[in-house]
Records
---
Amino acid sequence: MPVHVEVTYDMSKQLGTHRLELSGNTVGEIVDAVRARFADDPDVFEKLTAQTAVAVNGLLVRHGDRLETKLADGDRVSFVKAAAGG
Amino acid sequence: MIKGYAGRLLEVDLSTKKFSFEPLDEETARLYIGGKGYGTRLLYDRTEAGVDPLGPANPLIFSTGPLNGSVAPQSNRFAVVTKSPLTGGIGNATCGGSFALGMKKAGIDVLVVSGRSERPVRIEVDGDGNHVEFLDAADLWGKGTYETQELLGKKKNHAVIGPAGENEVLFAGIVSNERIAGRTGVGAVMGSKKLKAVSVWGSRKLDMEDEDKFKAYTKEVRAIFKDHPVLGESMKRFGTAGIVNTTNGRNILPTRNFQKGHFDDAMKISGEWMEENDLKGVKTSCIHCPVTCGRDVEVEGKGRVKGPEYETLALMGSNLEIGDLKKVSEWNYHADDLGMDTISLGGTLGFAMELGERGMLDTKLHFGDPAGVTELIQDIAHRRGLGADLADGSRRMSEKLGGREFAPHVKGLELSAYDPRGSFAQGLEYATTNRGGCHVQGASMYLESVGPLTINPRNLKLKAELPIVQQNLACTINSMVLCIFTTYGIVPKQIHEMDPNSWKYRALAGALENSGPLFRWVQSIKGSPLLWFEKWLTMITGTKFSSGHLQEIGGRIFNLERMFNLREGLTAADDNLPDRILHEPIFSDTTSGHPLDQLLPSYYKKRGWSADGVPTKRTLDKLKVAV
């Protein structure tokens, strides 16, 4: 299932892009696919995502079923950090 | 006089060119603190219903608070209060820069400007000599805010308008240094009085109850802010622009005149992009502020100038579908120099673009295309051609040209950059906030959708309580006068550090969502000070403040604002959101936009208002709101 993935902050620097096209049927599979990009140093991935929530098409995936959440063709998965502006 | 106040109010009448220094009213200071609270009380008492916002009888009130002149972080701001020409209701805006400090050094808590000069005028206030001079400003009329301040000299503290204020653009602001009191058209009121600038100076020092204790405690607060994940990390590193990708990821970044909440090129107008491509490493801040949310950027032909903040990036970037930081920076520079609120400007430009694309307005403007925008910004400030229509804001344009259902405003004030369809409490806050569609009169979205503790933004739990508590707190903060960003520190670092997927986090978020009565009870406690706001007020004034007192004072101010609006003809019908927001979905799984009609009755009830949104006598008496 092709989905669009958006990453920000230092994660995008590590990956060299803020937008990826990946395949996966669930959020968990997408998270694993991103993690695989950090195969050389998995700790970096864990550190970068420690305080990061995941949203599918803008809606935060509620916590209990985060990884099992099913995806549809063309969905957008975003890694979102807490922030403030004004 | 209570400690923390200079104890003086300066009256200036531009019609007669007379002035007088009067004692500050202690009782009003106790009840309304200062800033917008004191200003609102004065405005209510001094105006008749139906006063013309751009007429001489509408006073323009500059007001400081007890923290101004101290070393507290984010404390050197002033409030401006007046009847808004944009909304017809209460108008107010706050601003950083150096003017608040100048007022306090001059020994003035409040400056009331009334009347109207026949010719362009500026005033200079020598607080030490207790003297005010009325000076001809014909040579400054027409000049931008930056050049005006340059010509007035850096030794004094100025509040000035640009051409937008002179030409009574209804969303013109007042500028101090590089900061702007942007919202509700306070600059148009200043322009209507033919007042180009106020310069103020003096050498008085803030007298506080316990200065040693205050300084020691402030050092602790600064350390908390510096160590805080939002204030000390995200905002310090990326400025307010650090939130662009977060709102985009949550589908609440205004895009294409609020048709969408996601912009594919958001990264190109983000704080990260600014850091890597345009920032050149220069951070700026207001006096005594450790957050350094300001960012200087390079603008062609202008050198290094103040960069755009989040609201500008959203309303003039994604909202117009312009993913070009250089363009937005250029427009931001011009808007500041001309003296205009970029939120209302961007909202109105987006509305004009949609009108054009629907064939309802003769314009060559197009979403995604920067062509013509720079020229139009100048035309708006000078009320030339199409710019004359845009200068009146999106509501008046919609009344003239149609498109009311997608005009992006509440009470005439253009919506700021958090789409309420993904943040229900924020939507209720937009609808009920007295000055209109604004995010810094409460900022519920922080606890709901962008901060670390995201209570579900799309259910109805806690959605009436949250805006009330937030609005009340914001009223007090804007009366102290502090930057609203100080409230972001309330969510402690430990919560930021929790894994959003852990059971602890889930339990905490769930408990908060279900804690309406508890939430309100905690806020009503009148005992020891808990947070820096109460502690600072206590240490400065010598009177003990707690979170409950702050809620009570804020509620008093909010209800007085409400009574002002009701007197001016605004009613429950004005507690609304644009049809687009109410009915057009931006999430794929829903059919509705925002459940405002389900939330308003509960909000009114919890406010102690009647079913049609009028504060009851009991509520007013309880809060000691004399009307």
---
Amino acid sequence: MVKQKIVVIGNGMVGHHFLEQLANRPERELFDVLVFCAEPRPAYDRVHLSEYFGGRTADDLAMGKVEQYRDWGYDLRLNDAAVGIDRENKIVTSASGASVAYDHLILATGSYPFVPPIPGHQHEKCFVYRTLEDLDKIQAAAKDGKVGVVVGGGLLGLEAANALKQLGLEAHVVEFAPGLMSVQLDEGGSKLLREKIEELGVTVHTSTATELIEEVDGGRLRMNFKGDKSLDTDLIVFSAGIRPEDSLAKSAGIELGERGGIVVDNTCRTSDKNIFAIGECALFNNFIYGLVAPGYTMARTAVSLLCGEAAEFNGADMSTKLKLLGVEVGSIGDAHGRAEGSAAITFVDEQTGVYKRMITDREGKKLRGAVLVGDTGDYDTLLQYHLNDMDLPEHPEQLILPALDGAAPALGADALPDTATICSCHNVSKGDIVGAVQGGCCSVGEVKDCTKAATGCGGCSALLKNVVDAELAALGMEVNNDLCPHFPYTRQEIFHMVQVEEIKTFDELLHKHGSGKGCEICKPTAASIFASLWNEHIHEKPHVGLQDTNDTFMANMQKNGTYSVVPRIAGGEITPDKLIVLGQVAKKYDLYTKITGGQRIDLFGARLEELPEIWRELTDAGFETGHAYGKSLRTVKSCVGSTWCRFGVQDSVGMALTVENRYKGLRSPHKIKMAVSGCTRECAEAQSKDIGVIATENGWNLYVCGNGGMRPRHADLFATDLDDVTLIKYIDRVLMFYVRTADKLQRTSVWLENLEGGLDYLREVVIEDKLGICDELERQMTNVVGTYQCEWKTAINDPEMVKRFRQFVNTDEKDEKIVFVEEREQRRPATQEEIVKIAEPA
Amino acid sequence: MSEVAITRTEWLQVCKRSDLVADSGVCALVGGRQIALFFLPEQEPQLYAIDNWDPIANAGVIGRGLVAEIDGELTVASPLYKQHYRLTDGQCLEEEEIKLDIFPVAFEGDDVLIQFDQ
């Protein structure tokens, strides 16, 4: 079979989406695919570009990994721009001299930032805001500066202003038009946005035209505005809109629009039927779509057509919801009410700073557009009315007015048609979600995995949950949150009962609130709750039968029934003397030794009866239990920080020690890991931990609820530039709130995903003390910290407890069935085959 | 030539009541065989003796498992891969064909006795 050749020019988000969509189809096999990419790295997430300043790395933002492209079988040519198209012979040539034939050519060349031709705009301190390299340059220039100016008060301009603020500059926005975000917002919305942004310390200059940029004494820049005003600054970022990157198409004689842009029809084909154009380089109906979602739709259209299916691109909705410098902004449809016969309903609350305006038809039946500033809670509902052309309720103003009786008239999932798009990033309809639930997905998480809904920008999470819940209810499936057959309560409810009634034993709990005799689910859960609240030794009589084997013997059982021993090495810092002790103990008991991923030393192969002796030696040398066996704090990983590292800005080891010593011994629903990095290079990988701390010039950034493991999740940035005391205070509160409210064995990431209101709610609880419980959370943590004991130290000094570690209660003989063999100069458990061989020598 | 195996069933004193751990398990070595003993003071009977060898995990660890009630029946959950073995007859609830040996066991004063074939 001769495969058809697809050449893709450009590897931005839209080009990547095209390749990803194609890779997931069976027809993929019919094509040879080659990609030209002018940038040094494959596609990355430009929508979240600003987070690069917030600690996310180029890797975090990457969408197309080189390995992924290799797995897909694509020929990816990085750092090699396409420079010519020979349409007659269907050949593309590249900067490196490659010359490649195509059957189908995809132009995904994107756009470039428009820089107004103001004299002086070429100065080396003038930048654009488009690529990671641009951001690197801005960051470097900001180092010695005090003031930064963004030219352009649109969506991206405001984001750039926020970035300058984050870099520690005094930020200004200069906009030619009379208002900010004039495309998306009406006058009222724009005015309120301006007020809010100025409150945050960004100076806004509207109706301001720059006539000249000149260098003044001392190397700074002076912007001369029309009308004799001027502003001195250290750098300027242009964000005055985009222009389609159409030069390659132009030189190949492909039809362009009057003001640029590659003209495409509703199949995304250009004037040459073998050539598609998708994304921001394409001009459809005389319009360039500067959002990623329409670009994705174009990409999917092109993939479908290449695979022989009928598909059309018929324009896209430009509604947007976003948070700019912490201000919520939403714009739907015809925000300005420009269409004839429009009527508007406006709600303004000057006290709280909320502006909402709905544009309807004259009869008030259909929603044509809306503007929301300060509160976008109604966005999802309004958007669905608009996109699905649904009839508005009798009193449409109810949709934006604050609900007096507390019950907001949210749009029920039932009211939406099956065709309603719930997730526009991945084009998932209500029908797709209903289908997934009917196909066996029983939770929002499963539906996410299955349909990819809410995995893009995440803006549709709440609506997705509504649809999933409604469908589950319709199927008669009640989600059962009972802990186990013995307790018809959730872990959180049991936690509260134990706390309020001061229950100290499992028997009491079972008699009061449960039934039967308990099981391996409720017993360890109860033990964990008792430990979190009362912090008694797990070998106290009432608790000993509740523990899983690891907790019972305070070591991790390994596959042959022996245990591993993991002493605490806080922050990964250890003295040579202690290292030697570990080596001596390991040698004496012939333990296999391995450095763990959490910067500790694992000693494997200890027999049950050896554990107390080993721990006596370790305790004598000053070691404490590492709780490697418990659902509790494991490790706090650290880099060397400012003490040794030439880049470190804070003492990350010191902070890691503080944190680890504070929370060691805290029993929790799931194991907890933390890390502290001394600078944004993030060598401690703090963003993959439950609690991650990254040093900044001004203090610490706190990340929460990340994890590695089976389903990795990046931690979310929770608060920035904290001092030591506030950092600890917030961690106390987050952890204790988690310990109290999480489900059994629920890790922080899943807990956060299931927390209604998500990260914002967590911030309200922990930072703003919305529930008024922060004192209590801190008190409880103080209690746990204050009652800490090294469980091993207590155990080896209590003969009754030591008795528990006998292999046999009636003899000192050893378990002969434990067999080791040697490998790489250490011993390991023998496999079954090896044991048979040893037993029956040939 | 045929061999005749002679077995004698005997009650053997294994350990003291104080060697047991309430609501949990310990292990004894009886006639070269590892036997897990569970002492559940609130249950009737109070004592259970079951093979310590977990045939699924291939390790002698049953005595270190957690006692769990499943559908009204007392079981021990193997600490390695969490299969449940019924304390009364040794039946594995997850694998029908797997069943552990159990042994008659009783208190005599402070002594723990096991009936064991030798």
